[in-house]
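Minutes, project check-in
Item: structure for the 136-residue chain
Input as provided by the requester:
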Amino acid sequence: MSLLSRRLLKYRLALLLSLVAIVPLGYWVRFAPLGASGLQDALGSVAYEIFWILLGVFLFPLVSPARVAITVGLATCAIEFLQLWQPPFLQALRATIPGRLVLGNTFSWADFPAYLTGSLVGWQWVKKLHGLISAA
């Protein structure tokens, strides 16, 4: 196995472990009784953003982490605006738990700072993992 293949394997393993960690953390901050629901929503949105960045880089490890973070940030902003559109098929999707978790159900300008924060944190997270693997 070449050095590049070993590094890529380690990188993807680190990404997978990060995914395994961020999912329960995201659910915990979103649904645990922490106090202010606005804080819970914001922290949950940050974790949501990080999850999608980690997944994107896991699936496409040779794509720039910055490109993945920008794409995820733009996509989640588009999904937020999509909440203003409420045709029956989207309402039916949003009535399910997976649909509500992915598509959301109410538009809020307050979500955008959390998306930006999550994109920046996710990008830095992946950059750090990449640096650790490249240095090893």
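Outcome recorded: The two ends are 16 Å apart (CA to CA).
No further action items on this chain.
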